[in-house]
Amino acid sequence: MNPVIQTKNLGKHFGATVALSGVNLEIPGGEIIGLVGPNGAGKTTLFSIICGFLKPNTGSLSVLGHAPLSPELQGRVSVLPQDAPLSKGVNIRKQFEFFAKLQGFSPAEAAEEAQTALESVDLLDKAEEVPDSLSHGMRKRASLAQTFIGNPELILLDEPTAGLDPVTTHKVRELVLRKAVGRTIVISSHNLAELQETCNSVAILNEGKLVRFCQVSEVIDRGKTMIIRLESPPAEDLIKSVSEISGIVSVRSGDDHTPRLIILLDDSIDDSEADLAILTKLKKKGVAYREIRRGESLEEKVVEITNKDKDSS
Amino acid sequence: MDFRQTKVVVLHDLASAYRRVAVILTVVFFAVFWYFVFKAFNDGMVEAIDQGEELSLFFFWFFDEIDPGQLTAAPSTFLFLYSLVAFLTTHYFVITMTSDQTASDIGNRYFRYLVTRCGRTELFTGRLISVLIITLLTIVLGGIAALLTIGYVDGELSTGSISFAIQTSFWLFLLCLPFVSLSAMISAWSGSVAISMLCTSAIALVFPKLFDFIELKWKHIEGIENLRAFFPGGVTDSVLGGNANALTAIVPILYLVVFGWIGCRLFRTREFL
Q1: Residue A253 and residue A147 in one domain
Q2: Are residues A91 and A182 in the same domain?
Q3: Cβ-defined contact of A71 to B119 (cutoff 8 Å)
Q4: Considering its fold, how many domains does chain A have in total?
Q5: Which residues of A touch B2 (CB under 8 A)?
Q6: pLDDT interval class at B69 (50, 70, 90)
Q7: What is the pLDDT of residues A225-240, one digit of tens each?
Q8: Largest CB tally within 10 Å, which of A64, A214, A288, B196?
Q9: Which CATH number is A256's domain given?
């Protein structure tokens, strides 16, 4: 199957600032892909190049087998841009109908498409209102809804849950999962917990370079790792003491900002025995903990991978 | 070019034009301006000019190239004065109204919703056509207001007056074409309403003065004054000077095409940061 998005040695700079450098990426179809990385990693730049908002300085790019902005892509790719408002003076329904008409729908079909899109984000009762009269969450949902007009094959979502409350975030996640059937969705986000729940694959960018592109399940090992969040950073003797427990492969501390123990367990060890042994050690050492969790989170792995990349460069 | 998409853009823009601040403000200022101008005409200015009291001073003050014969050719002094003031001011109103064809939507990133659905050529052309239609409507409404005023004052409206108003509206529209497309070009290049308005207004102001200088500097060259028709805004001089011909109509259309083409190229190749 041909990749939906293929980049070869893609590079972009703004003056002396390198935003992207040598990005080689092949995004397969029919998946939800997360685009992650710290601020300034190049996520939005890569997004903008894929959408045709920006032009690369080096390398090449194909989207659904075509160059960005090709007439063949019109209506087949849709985007939720970051921080781009809908037109201020026009009500949501009229804007959606306008988008649908641009994509080739007749006025009657466009009205139907607008209705379906509004329904999908529970905004039918706000359809006749202008964006400025809606709350931030509603505006975000409206912006998200316009991406579904006309059943595009590729949907690009830049920070779809930024600034949303947990309930709306959950709704957006459910909606994205529902809409992902039969199409490719690329999500750029800092909300890695959401991406972990939503995405099949993840592309990690750092300082303009693609550090890793793989399945989420490859990055996070849910079973073998135990994370214990502590009140204060663990002392060396605690790490040594815990690592002496039978069936423990390795023990390390987290970074300075989040005091914790990251413990890798052997496959053969009984989970409950291990838990008990570790907690006993903590109690003996008088160490208080806040949370015990099995499996590393995507967030932790992304931080680890980007830190490693920084150290190596 | 996809004409269906262009039509969709034009219709959408026309339907939402009355919500645009630039359009609302310009139309309000345009209406207030003409109200006071027509009031001044009826408060004795027309009568004074008819009696020859202020004629020479008036012409000299407003427009030194005017052919006084145009006054006798016009069906009434009122309509003549209307056309005189209209030819001197309308393009400035139009520049104010049409400076934001693409600029603010580039700046606020709204075009990001559109460019994955519609060709950039179609977007640019659609916007340009819609502002040309709004410009034409504004000019026609000004002409209708002049006719209604003269009809109200005189108690009758001759076919000559209607014909004169139509001709004036036609030439005024042609006068505005280069400035509308120049606005479109600068708007697409700069992405800034302020820069677009400032540059186009400056060109509208500077070009006639530039030609005054050229004419003065090379006055020994025979027929130098005829070159004025080739400058943007040359329509004013040709029509008020009584020299309007086919070339007077073709030149602004050529400017429209050239500026529009360059603007379209800039819009197609620009990045949306």
Answers
A1: no
A2: yes
A3: yes
A4: 2
A5: 71
A6: low
A7: 788 888 888 888 888 8
A8: B196
A9: 3.30.70.100
In the predicted structure, residue B121 carries a pLDDT above the cut 90: yes
Taking the C-alpha atoms of residue A218 and residue A220, their distance in angstroms, rounded to an integer, is 6
**Cα distance between residue A307 and residue A255, in whole Å:** 10
DSSP A63-99: ETTB-TT-GGGBTTEEEE-TT-PPPTTS-HHHHHHHH
Least confident of A23-32, A190-199, B56-65, B186-195: B56-65
Considering only CB atoms, A89 lies closest to which of B8, B9, B19, namely B19
Q: Is residue A55 part of a domain?
A: yes
Alpha-carbon gap: A209 to the closest alpha carbon of chain B (Å):
20
Nearest CA in chain A to B11: A98
Domain co-membership, A113 together with A36: yes
**A63 & A79 share domain:** yes
The string of DSSP codes covering A180-216 is TTTSEEEEE-S-HHHHHHH-SEEEEEETTEEEEEEEH
Q: What is the nearest CA distance from B101 to chain A, expressed in angstroms?
A: 14
ipTM of the complex: 0.85
Query: Which one of B4, B108, B111, B113 would you mutate to disrupt binding with A, by most A Cβ within 10 Å of its Cβ?
Result: B113
Distance between CA atoms of residues B34 and B72, nearest Å: 23
- Distance separating alpha carbons of residues B148 and B165, to the nearest angstrom: 11
Range in A230-239, B93-102, B219-228 the model is least confident about: B219-228
Per the structure, the complete domain to which residue A10 belongs is given by 5-219
Contact between B110 and A74 using a beta-carbon 8 Å cutoff = no
Residue B26 has pLDDT above 90, yes or no: no
Of B142, B148, B132, B147, which Cα lies nearest the Cα of B169?
A: B142
Suggest the residue from A82, A101, A132 to mutate for an interface test with chain B (most B CBs closer than 10 A): A101
Residue A214 lies in a domain: yes
* Top-confidence range, A293-297, B62-66, B223-227: B223-227
- Report the number of distinct structural domains present in chain B: 1
Q: B139 to chain A nearest CA, in Å?
A: 25
Contact flag A53-B115 (C-beta cutoff 8 Å): yes
Domain that holds residue B247: 3-269
Are A191 and A281 in the same domain? no
pTM score of the predicted model: 0.83
Summarize the confidence of residues B26-39 as an average pLDDT: 88
The CA-atom distances, in angstroms, between B46 and each of A99, A258, B39, B40, B168 are 52, 85, 10, 8, 19
Contact: B8, A77; criterion CB under 8 Å: no
Is residue A302 in a domain? no
* Contact (CB<8Å) B110/A103: no
The pLDDT tens digits for A246-305 are 888 888 887 656 688 888 888 777 777 778 888 888 888 888 888 887 776 777 777 777
Kindly report the CATH number assigned to the domain that includes residue A103. 3.40.50.300
